[in-house]
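Hypothesis: this fold can be encoded by more than one sequence.
Test: take the structure tokens below, design a sequence, compare later.
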């Protein structure tokens, strides 16, 4: 009995010591707002040093100052538009020889509307930001993690990843990509000491909705960004993917049980509620 208690205490202590568990630094893309800013805060709460990446440098400076003061960790702010062609080499250069233990592939956006009416460049850039950038950053930083035998990578998927979503078709496809990428890499790296996980929030209160042209105001199942991040941090290393919220979980998994055409039609009807007039 005493041995079991000691083993559990030891395991919990190891789980809470994220610097030892994964490495000194965490890099969060899209750290200027929403889920990314909360990842920065909560990983700093785990005593990790934080690299914040996004375009709005003033917003990141505020988050960086807040977490330096509150948690006595180091921060680095990288002002970078991730869809620029030199974005990945720039970030690799800025990170330098820091021990990057946690990578949060969070930056992303979606746009609701008729596919042919949505701006072509905006949709192609979305595919780049949501899909190509996570592949490139993970490829750059996972090899040193393998050499150290420890590390973690989180990919932002979505409840939109679990079925096709009319009027949100490109975005949903990018999120399926992230979910499958996360789960595939989980299978590849789980025996190499690296925790990979796909995180699927449902409707979460951030700036995402206004960028996506979602008109519906938040409903009863809308989540707080900090709660979604808290779940991700709690589940990292325990599962290949996680959906936030019971209703979202039931929605995601019921899509497996009903005919594909039915689940696509239901998802389309939900999107019409998000933006009446579609
Ligand atoms: N909120 C939801 O309901 C929800 C649900 C499911 C999944 N998600 C996913 O969660 C992730 C975070 O979104 P959020 O909800 O926190 O939305 P958000 O508040 O709009 O944050 C998006 C972040 O991405 C950054 N970003 C956008 N374009 C960029 C670019 N070209 N280069 C660098 N950074 C860029 C933004 O920073 P700058 O503008 O400063 O560059 C911002 O920090 C996304 O991948 C989204 O798909 C959100």
């Amino acid at each position: 009995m005493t041995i079991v208690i000691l083993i559990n205490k030891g395991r919990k202590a190891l789980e809470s010591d994220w610097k030892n568990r994964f490495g000194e630094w965490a890099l969060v893309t899209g750290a200027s707002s929403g889920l990314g800013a909360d990842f920065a805060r909560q990983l700093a709460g785990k005593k990790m040093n934080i690299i914040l990446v996004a375009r709005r440098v003033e917003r990141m400076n505020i988050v960086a100052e807040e977490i330096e003061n509150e948690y006595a960790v180091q921060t680095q702010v990288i002002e970078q538009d991730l869809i620029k062609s030199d974005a990945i080499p720039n970030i690799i250069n800025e990170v330098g020889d820091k021990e990057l233990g946690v990578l949060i592939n969070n930056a992303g956006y979606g746009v609701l509307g008729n596919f042919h009416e949505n701006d072509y460049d905006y949709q192609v850039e979305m595919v780049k930001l949501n899909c190509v950038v996570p592949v490139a950053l993970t490829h750059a930083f996972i090899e040193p993690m393998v050499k150290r035998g420890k590390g973690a990578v989180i990919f932002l998927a979505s409840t939109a990843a679990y079925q096709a979503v009319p009027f949100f078709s490109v975005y949903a496809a990018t999120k399926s990509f992230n979910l499958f990428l996360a789960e595939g890499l989980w299978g590849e790296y789980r025996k190499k000491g690296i925790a990979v996980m796909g995180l699927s929030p449902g409707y979460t209160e951030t700036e995402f909705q206004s960028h996506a042209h979602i008109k519906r105001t938040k409903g009863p199942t809308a989540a707080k960004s900090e709660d979604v991040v808290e779940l991700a941090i709690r589940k990292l290393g325990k599962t290949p993917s996680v959906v936030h919220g019971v209703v979202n979980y039931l929605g995601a998994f019921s899509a497996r049980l009903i005919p594909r055409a039915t689940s696509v039609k239901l998802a389309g009807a939900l999107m019409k509620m998000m933006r009446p007039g579609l």
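The radius of gyration is 19 Å. The mean pLDDT is 94.
Hypothesis status: open.
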